[in-house]
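Sample pair:
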Amino acid sequence: GLIRKAGLLLSIIFLSMIDFIMDIDLIAFIPKTLKELINIKNVGISNLFIILFILFEFLSVLKNMTKCKLPIPIKLQKFLEKIMTEYTKEIENSSNIEEKQEIKEGEKNDN
């Protein structure tokens, strides 16, 4: 985890230097009046990377809260459990869990 964090911070520093050298504006397609309304001058590559980094860490915290069964809103918990069941192997499918419970109960009844 520490190596990943250090790599992300080095990436932010590198992308900030690129932004300084090449004045890239990734929200140039937004109308000027809207940019003035929300008071954003530009969004460079490093800014976009920082936003994605924050979202990644936020989702990681929510995922860990779900795995630890800490209280979070029900809809959010179901959404995260669905994502983790479908796309990762961090949470077992509820049908797999039910099958394992039935097998254990069957084994107990056989004894």
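Helices lie at 2-21, 32-37, 45-67, 74-87, 94-110.
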